[in-house]
Design brief:
This is histidine kinase. InterPro entries: HAMP_dom, HATPase_C_sf, HATPase_dom, His_kinase_dom, HisK_dim/P_dom, HisK_dim/P_sf, Sensor-like_sf, Sig_transdc_His_kin-like_C. It holds the Pfam family HAMP. It catalyses: ATP + protein L-histidine = ADP + protein N-phospho-L-histidine. By secondary structure, the chain is of the alpha+beta class. The chain folds into 3 domains: 244 residues, Beta-Lactamase (2-Layer Sandwich), CATH 3.30.450; 86 residues, Signal transduction histidine kinase, dimerisation/phosphotransfer (DHp) domain (Helix Hairpins, Orthogonal Bundle); 145 residues, Histidine kinase-like ATPase, C-terminal domain (Heat Shock Protein 90, 2-Layer Sandwich), CATH 3.30.565.10. The protein is 52% helix and 16% strand. A hairpin with a 5-residue loop joins strand 1 and strand 2. The chain is rod-shaped and about 160 Å long. It starts with a helix and ends in a 15-residue tail after the last strand.
Length: 503
């Protein structure tokens, strides 16, 4: 039994150098690399999108929260300033601006309805501004529209969040209040958060890369082992077994590869045995013919009786060789599936009668009788091929029957099948030989040897199987051999009255 590690190392020897074997992780075109990159890319892409979404959500939430706070503060301060402006108490408005404004973090400004600066929390800076209408939000607020947003500082490049509201009391427009706060602290905090998220993302990618490497290796290892195993099979090393214990599609594929390897090994063994048997069977008649011809050339032709016997031998061996070649061709066509089979209704009783008539003279010459009891059964198939199958079985029964015995042929239909049973009263088949009698050239049991080619039963089985049927043999000790042929019955309803099957 081959393990995955055995298969990885099995083809490294010079005699099995099929591929340039490198470690799996170094083969850049390997399935390991593809799986690893796919897992890692999907992980990196997913975590990157998640990190970007978290940062975007955090930034948006903070900006909305701060904007809502500054709007609340701006509206509240505008109420307080409106009371002071309504009483022309600019000093009190200035105190309010100075109290709540900070020169850098929070800036408060109050403008009159004409856009002139009345009070500011950053007087030193604001003296340099010449046109306040260019400051974001001022022009809109002078039109009695509250505005908000993010803009650069009045005289700096730092980002600031602002809110500009009109100051109105009792329906009278008294001016504009603009409040802005710096975002530097938030941006610094956001950078720290972003760095933390990115660091977490990098750590996650590293961890996912390790997990992806483990998953890809575990996924690629059995695939690589199966590839190596398939290469070994292609190189002719059959009969090995792949050890992959997984309850998934890869495990099922490994099971099928093992089954294929065993089947190919069995077929290769049968092929070698077949070739050896064919060579032996062909060599015997050819050798006999050559020996006889040499004897005739050496002077045996001068004696009429000896010459006639030698010529008869040549004729017999030539016929035997012709039968063998014919049977081999038939068997080859049937196994290759290139022998065309006609599809037409076949009356099995008539077909069995034809087969019996064809071998009747041989039976009489050996003193063998026959008893027939075949019901009227209909099947579908090639009548000539089926006739050949029945004749081969009958021929086998005749060859191995004892003189003055009977051959019994019985046919019945049962459960939609036509069953024809042929039983002889010969010595029977040994228990050891019974599983092999349908193999080509099998003659291991001396009691079943005859003068044929040894292919008749093999051909009969191929013909029956080509008609979606089965053929089996049983042989109780000392009670002859019984062959049972089952074929699909095309008219079971018409034959429902037929009962029983011959044993």
């Amino acid at each position: 039994m081959r393990t995955e590690q055995d298969l990885d190392a099995g083809l490294k020897s010079p005699s099995k150098r099929v591929l340039n074997w490198l470690p799996t992780r170094m083969r850049w075109n390997s399935i390991y690399r593809k799986l690893f990159i796919t897992y890692l890319a999907l992980t990196a892409l997913g975590t990157s999108f998640l990190a970007a979404y978290i940062l975007w959500s955090f930034h948006g939430y903070f900006m909305r929260s701060r904007q809502a706070d500054i709007n609340t503060w701006a509206n509240a301060l505008s109420e307080s300033v409106a009371e002071a402006l309504a009483e022309d108490d600019l000093a009190r408005a200035t105190v309010t601006v100075q109290r709540y404004g900070q020169s850098e973090a929070v800036t408060l400004r109050i403008f009159n309805p004409q856009g002139r600066l009345l009070a500011t929390s950053a007087p030193d800076q604001d003296r340099q501004v010449l046109n306040w209408l260019e400051v974001p939000g001022i022009a809109a607020a002078l039109q009695k529209r509250a505005t908000q947003g993010v803009a650069k500082g009045v005289l700096s490049n730092d980002d600031r969040l602002y809110s500009t509201v009109p100051i109105i009391r009792n329906g009278e427009f008294l001016g504009v209040l603009r409040m802005s706060i710096t975002l530097e602290q938030f941006q610094r905090q956001f950078r720290n958060v972003a760095l933390t998220v990115l660091g977490t993302l990098a750590l996650t990618v590293v961890l996912c890369a390790l997990i992806s490497e483990w998953l890809a290796r575990n996924m690629a290892r059995p695939i690589q082992a199966m590839r190596n195993f398939a290469i070994q099979i292609g190189s002719g090393h059959l009969g090995e077994e792949l050890s992959i214990q997984q309850a998934d599609e890869l495990g099922q594929l490994a099971t099928e590869l093992n089954r294929m390897s065993k089947r190919l090994a069995s077929l290769d063994k049968e092929r070698r045995a077949f070739l050896a048997s064919v060579s032996h069977e062909l060599r015997t008649p050819v050798s006999n013919v050559l020996v006889t011809v040499e004897a005739l050339k050496s002077g045996a032709s001068e004696e009429p009786e000896l010459r006639d016997r030698f010529i008869q031998t040549v004729e017999d061996e030539t016929k035997r060789l012709a039968r063998l070649i014919h049977d081999l061709l038939d068997l080859g066509r049937l196994e290759a599936g290139v022998a065309p089979l006609e599809q037409q209704p076949v009356n099995l009783r008539d077909l069995v009668n034809r087969a019996v008539r064809a071998v009747e003279s041989r039976m009489q010459s050996k003193g063998i009788g026959i008893q027939m009891d075949v019901a009227n059964m209909q099947s579908q198939g090639d009548p000539e091929r089926l006739l050949q199958a029945f004749m081969n079985i009958l021929d086998n029964a005749i060859k191995h029957s004892i003189p003055d015995t009977q051959v019994f042929v019985v046919g019945r239909s049962q459960n939609g099948e036509a069953i024809v049973t042929i039983r002889d009263q010969g010595p029977g088949i040994s228990e050891a030989a019974l599983p092999h009698i349908f193999e080509q050239f099998y003659t291991a049991d001396p009691s079943r040897q005859g003068s044929g080619t040894g292919l008749g039963l093999a051909i009969a089985r191929r013909i029956v199987e080509a008609h979606q049927g089965t053929i089996t043999a049983i042989s109780p000790p000392g009670k002859g051999a019984t062959f049972r042929i089952k074929l699909p019955c095309t008219n079971p309803a018409a034959l429902a009255k037929a009962n029983g099957v011959a044993e």
